[in-house]
Specification:
By secondary structure, the protein is an alpha/beta fold. It contains 38 helices and 26 strands. It has a 6-stranded mixed beta sheet with strand order 1-4-5-6-7-8, with helices on both faces. One of its GO terms (molecular function) is type I site-specific deoxyribonuclease activity.
Length: about 1000
Amino acid sequence: MTGAEAQIERDLISKLQELKYEYRPDIRDRFALERNFREKFQALNRVQLSDTEFQRLLEQIVTPDVFAASHSLREYSSFLRDDGTPLNFTLVNIKDWCKNSFEVINQLRINTDNSHHRYDVILLINGVPVVQLELKTLQVSPRRAMQQIVEYKNEPGNGYGRTLLSFIQLFIVSNYSDTWYFANNNTRHFSFNADERFLPIYQYAAEDNRKIVNLDAFAEKFLAKCTLGQMISRYMVRVASEQKLMVMRPYQIYAVKALVDCIQQNVGNGYVWHTTGSGKTLTSFKASTLLKDNPDIEKCLFVVDRKDLDRQTREEFNRFQEGCVEENTNTETLVRRLLSDDYADKVIVTTIQKLGLALDGAHKKNYKARLEPLRNQRMAFIFDECHRSQFGENHKAIKEFFPKAQLFGFTGTPIFEKNASYQQVEGDEASLRTTETLFERSLHEYTITHAIEDRNVLRFHIDYYKPEGKHQPKPGEGLKKEKVIETILAKHNGATAERKFNAILATSSIDDAIEYFDKFKEMQAKRQADDPDLRPLNIACVFSPPAEGNKDVQQIQEDLPQEQEDNKKDPDKKKKALIAIIDAYNTQYGTNHRIGEFDLYYQDVQKRIKDQQWPNADLPHAQKIDIVIVVDMLLTGFDSKFLNTLYVDKNLKYHGLIQAFSRTNRVLNDTKPYGNILDFRQQQANVEEAIALFSGEKVDKPKEIWLVDPAPTVIGNLQGAVKKLSEFMASQGLSAAPEDVPNLKGDAARGQFVTLFKDVQRLKTQLDQYTDLNEDQREQISATVPPDTLQGFRSAYLETAQRLREQQARQGDDADPAVQQLDFEFVLFASSVIDYDYIMELIARSTQQGPSRLKMSREELIGLIQADAKFIDERDDIAEYIRGLEANKALDEKAIRQGYENFKETKKGQELTAIAIAHNLEPTALQTFVDEVLRRRIFDGERLNDLMAPLGLGWKARTQKELALMEDLSPLLHKLAQGREISGLSAYEQ
């Protein structure tokens, strides 16, 4: 630890002492930690344990399963004492977390079989380690600091799985000026996935959403004893179905507190304005569960609109707490549960339509009369997306029947007077129905402006497409569909990072959607006839069918005004067209949907959009959707991280516009820098008006927050990044050329190259997805980073990064600080076009002579592979295989694949034989041993002893020989395991 880090640590401990934590400098090892825990446990549970009882207690509660440990921390448990009697116990005071003992320890070192890490600062509640703080002075990215913790924690045999550290709930990383925190989890949810997305990390904020990131201020607000106790006991959510821990974001906590306070004080209604994509379901779930424990509340109803949202919200709630919400299959079930005294029926998820029927005095089943016993009870109603069309009609009925009810609304896009379309009449006066008139007051606001600044959602890139020529369309006026399709086909690959992501095409009417579907089919077929190698886009289309008395469809259409209206005209024609669209879908995807079960078709479409995840061996591209054509559907309430583009051939305004645009801006990773909008209706004025209306608090230039920089600015940034890289290479006495990167001397220089080129690649990735670049700008970009130079630098980057990554892993805390802080972000260097199948196809094509075959030399093909992060662990093998292929011998793809497998098997045999000879072992025995390790994915020390037995060595000499063998064998085992963990191997790698 550097002197500066030590000073930060001392200052933090002083601060925590001010906050009444007890500093325990005597707790520096595992035994002192356990001794202190034993004292606290005995005092809390009023018991004295024998040494054997305490040992059994530790064996029972210490577990590598983080989710199980989190349960033990919060619940009553029991174990058998020496005399056979049960002892019921808790680890902390779970009734009042503030009344626990709070202590701080530092520089704890816990040595297990193969984990020797030292932990900067740990906070103990009643002797249980619950928070770990890692302090840095380097300008290290929070992701890299987090990645280090992930690496340490996921080592086999680490201290987190074998000691009281298994109870850690939160990790905090700070370099004093910048502080982040995140939840502990099992490996499945606690990995640094280079292909897709990273762990959710948080910064703390005040109620007005202002950041609190300075460590001193953070400690004051977040680590105050009762605040931390509440954070762990009330504001962490255990997702039962996924065995996962989640920590609520600050704005979610403030909203829940405001809502619960409003009910406890019985001071009327309110609404929460939390932008689309900010996790409203989790917020409302936590509010509901806290209300479940409030004896003053008879029932808490979470009310949604539309059948699919009913199911979706119920599934979300049950995801957070298994079985906590039953399905309300009909209004009768709703009424039965409302009248039930069962605690399980206290929180109910239902649709507003069922609630309306229950309160309809004219209904033949007379539900309203049966509900009379509830009339004067205190009821809490929480409405999801409270501006939906049905709400106003039921609002009055709820207030009249339940005079003591409190109503709360959640919305991502409130209704103000400016965007209101419904009127309400009170006496002789008519006024517009706004969110505020319905719910009285705002309880908490977290707008899209806040969310973008927090990086919880992405900014937007908007391309207002203008065709060439004198006659420019007016705002709101559409173009010819053929022109729109031509433009989409030309721009789609760029906009979606070569189809890594997918898109929605929003159209004005069902007739337009049908016409678009047919024309896409026709135009793509023509293009494919001209170019047999063309991969057509997978196009789907979804709109609601004519209801024809079908209640499910009627319910769906209540929030689809355009589709409801369209289906009144020529419904048979629309039905026939939808049947043809579903038939085409069945042919494309091997499904068996029909219009009579439209909802199943609709669900399947949604699932395929969400399953765009790449790479995804279980769902090849042919089974995914590139573009789905819609009218109203999917433009509200639908979330997918893999949807990044919206094509707009439909007039949008205010909340409708924001809702539609927000389908594209879910955060994934750096390959998705923003949500992409390609507008064919010249709606710039509408966009600017919507941004101004939904920015929330007064923001001087909201457009600068909401929208990405224009292309010229980003091109300028790219030129600046390339200049910095060139100046750095010159400062090392080298040319700014890929071939000179291997000549960099020292880890500090190599680390600096990694950092500088990563910036170049990130800016190039952003520009690749801009759909509004003109020819001059494309040439400018190409001149700044010529494609061949970029590919060469990518290859050099991966070579350098691989070397430094291995060093990071090998040296851990002892690595040079310049290496330790590096975050390689390999995801930026993985092409979505180039996967294993594509490479095998390209190798096969490179051996063919036909004119339609791809013209690419072997060295160009090798360069392509070496510049792609997906092949980082086998790029040398593929390159060697390609170079060894016989010239002028045409091979098909099957032969290429088989040849490569044979090549790898032969090479593995040669490498193992060389290792066996070097260590005086029988090659066949070593081959058998390695095959067994790879088959079981377990490294068995006893079998290693058997392998070494023929050498007839004493234990000391044999141990030295084993370590020498493993130094050569470990890298090969890791390579052959292809990223999969081999249990027990790390014990031989110290």
